[in-house]
Amino acid sequence: MYKAGNASVLGLVLGAEDFSDFLTRSKVASRVAQHDQELIEEMQVKLAEIQDTKDSIEADKIDLEGTKSQQDAKRVQLAGQLADTQDQIQDIEALEQDYLANKAAIDKQMEEVQAEVDAIYAKIKSEGEYEGGIMLWPVEGYETVTSDYGWRFGGTDFHTGIDIARLNAKGEGIYGKPIRAAADGTVAFTQTTFTPGRGYGIYLIIDHGGGISTLYGHTCGLNVKLGDKVKRGQTIAFVGSTGWSTGPHLHFEVRVNGAYTSPWPYLQ
Ligand SMILES: [Zn+2]
């Protein structure tokens, strides 16, 4: 774009050789000045546009800061909720009360669940020999067994596994903690959805060979897929409270050819 400064306009006029030339030069100078004026106006419009853009960026920035502080607040709230959930401990008394109060319905439901599990095991073809040795404790740092294998609730309900729950040495709740494969094996069954209050919730079965399998119940989510080969100690799921459960815990079972058995001889 052509641009003339005042010095060059003055120079243009003062360089006139005679009056006619002066007039011509004055007209040119006037046009140049006119052009400069237009240029200035154009610049002012552009400046105003830039100012508008700057203002709108500032406004966006304020909006973003508002959104960010909302997100921060939400994050703090969620962290609080998570801590609350983690502090929850499995309430075995509540489970017993629920069982005794609704015994007929729960017995019927458990019969159905066990029939489903039997059908699942009937389809599992155990591969190879069991070479796992003593199994790994499935939730590292959580030693408390809130409900043992065998008859419970005054001999009214047979517990087909052990419940691992409560807190670790640091006082952290078990919810969301990794569940480890007790031995090498293959993921033989996965259940990824659940009905609240019913059965094992989200669970999986690992075949270890020789007809020996382990079952991990009430998880909040799985970390492996059906058919995956897993290594002893690998994270396969996370502790939850899905299914018939009154607080975060792992229900751990050992089965031999589909029949539940005490896990203790395999763990010690
Ligand atoms: Zn259990």
Explain what the structure shows:
With 268 residues, the protein is of the alpha+beta class. The protein has two domains: 6-85; 111-267, Glucose Permease (Domain IIA) (Distorted Sandwich), CATH 2.70.70.10. It is 42% helix and 21% strand. The chain contains five helices and 13 strands. Strands 1, 4, 6, 7, 8, 10, 12 and 13 form an eight-stranded antiparallel sheet that branches. Strands 5-11-9 form a three-stranded antiparallel sheet, with no helix packed on it. It is rod-shaped and about 125 Å long. The protein starts with 5 loop residues before the first helix and ends with a helix. The relative contact order is 0.13. The mean pLDDT is 87. The chain binds zinc ion. The site of zinc ion (ZN) has 5 residues, from loops.
Mean pLDDT across the residues is 87
What is the level-2 CATH architecture name of the largest domain? Distorted Sandwich
Ligand list: zinc ion
Return the string of H and E elements. Answer: HHHHEEEEEEEEEEEEEH
Distance between the termini: 89 Å
CATH topology of the largest domain: Glucose Permease (Domain IIA)
Largest sheet: 8 strands, antiparallel
Please, how many domains?
A: 2
- Rg of Cα set: 38 Å
Helix content range of the residues, please? 40-55%
Quaternary state reads single chain
Structural class: alpha+beta
What is the highest CATH level, the class of the largest domain?
Mainly Beta
